[in-house]
Amino acid sequence: MTTDKGTEKIALVVLDMAGTTVVDDGLVEQAFQAAAGALGVAAGSDEHQEMLAYVRATMGESKISVFRHLFGEEEKAQRANAAFEQAYHDLVDAGHCAALPGAAEAIAELRAQGRKVVLTTGFSRATQDRILAALGWQEIADLTLCPADAGRGRPFPDLALTALLRTETDSVRQVAVVGDTGYDMLTGTRAGASVVAGVLTGAHQAERLRADGATHVLASIAELPALLAGR
Question: Name one Pfam family in it (predicted).
């Protein structure tokens, strides 16, 4: 189906979680502190600061991929990842997990418009499920995906393309990819999505989002339903 402007109707919306629909509030960095500490990296050291800068620059990427880059050896990467997940789970269990204002309502409106919604993440399935349970979001979307479900995480196109295949969407031009990081934008552009929207509620600012391919930059996810309705 096409609009009167010759653009295909968006049938599938692929949404990031932390920073886009879920408040991040520094939880990733706090959990990284635990991961680095488990590998003997002292907080405040030059090595720690360099690693933290890399974590910030690669927000949105699969966390195990980040730790493989930082620590090299697979055994060390797995230990760091396990420490990260435990720390993040503890923060979620302690109540440090909330939906961004208007996120649940935006998802409901997108589905009411007849669009399918898929929630994606760079976290593991265990962490993603922990967040969904804490928010009561187990049924909020048509599908949820983590990197292990798709083959590769961001910035590769796998998550968006897996969402397309699993929801039986007809064309990549019917897909919108939305996130708060440059890696989300790269995922969308590499997947061929016709809408690649960055939101300013998370890790990266408008300049980074546009540099990595954003077709739109929104103040928050709350603006997305109106944007898509107006196409």
Answer: Hydrolase
So where are the chain's domains? Answer: 12-24+98-229, 27-93
- The percent of residues above 70 in pLDDT, for the chain, comes to 97
Q: Which of 1, 6, 13 is nearest to 216 (CA)?
A: 13
State pTM to two decimals: 0.86
For domain 12-24+98-229, the question of CATH label 1.10.510.10 is answered with no
pLDDT in tens, 151-208: 888 999 999 999 999 999 999 999 999 999 999 999 999 999 999 999 999 889 999 9
216 vs 209: CA distance, rounded Å: 9
